């Protein structure tokens, strides 16, 4: 199995709902977004996927989330903005931009700090 991935960073604020102690108050993170695609076969040019296309899909999301309150972003406004839910939101957006080219899976990791992340992974094809 081959993998390629890209990393981007954005600043955003959010507050959690539920039993999260101080995290129920508005606070911010320097988020790190990792997007990794996998597949079994390389293209004729020796690559799994055009990494620039993956970067463009990730950069479009980062542009929408940078310096935002995540609770006001369309698609996240009625969601508890945990790292898990943000990872799924980003997965859905990236997957829509890269489906149909023979990749098997997409994994999105959202790091809230250098020691903690959540991820969402699912199949892209079939």
In summary, what is this structure?
The protein has 126 residues and is α+β, with helices and mostly antiparallel strands. Helix content is 25%, strand content 36%.
Explain how this protein is built.
Helix content is 25%, strand content 36%. It has 126 residues and is α+β, with helices and mostly antiparallel strands. It has a five-stranded mixed beta sheet. α1 packs across α2. The radius of gyration is 15 Å and the shape is elongated. It starts with a strand and ends with a strand. The mean pLDDT is 96.
Keywords:
126 residues; 36% strand
**What is the arithmetic mean of pLDDT?**
96
Order of the strands making up the biggest sheet: 3-1-2-4-5
Radius of gyration: 15 Å
Describe the biggest sheet?
A: 5 strands, mixed
Low-pLDDT residue spans: none
User: Beta-strand level of the residues, as a percent range?
Assistant: 35-45%
- Terminal Cα separation, in Å? 17 Å
Tally of strands: 5
As a percent range, the share of helical residues equals 10-25%
Structural class: alpha+beta
What is the global morphology? elongated
Order of helices and strands: EEHEHEE
Number of helices: 2
């Amino acid at each position: 199995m081959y993998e390629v991935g890209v990393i981007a960073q954005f600043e955003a604020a959010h507050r959690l709902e539920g039993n999260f102690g101080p995290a129920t108050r508005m606070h911010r993170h320097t988020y790190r977004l990792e997007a990794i695609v996998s597949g079994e076969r390389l293209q004729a040019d020796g690559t799994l996927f055009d990494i620039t296309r993956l970067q463009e899909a990730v950069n479009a999301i980062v542009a929408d989330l940078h310096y935002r309150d995540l609770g006001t972003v369309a698609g996240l406004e009625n969601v508890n903005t945990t790292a898990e839910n943000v990872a799924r939101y980003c997965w859905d957006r990236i997957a829509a931009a890269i489906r149909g080219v023979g990749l098997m899976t997409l994994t999105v990791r959202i790091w809230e700090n250098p020691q903690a992340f959540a991820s969402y992974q699912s199949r892209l094809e079939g």
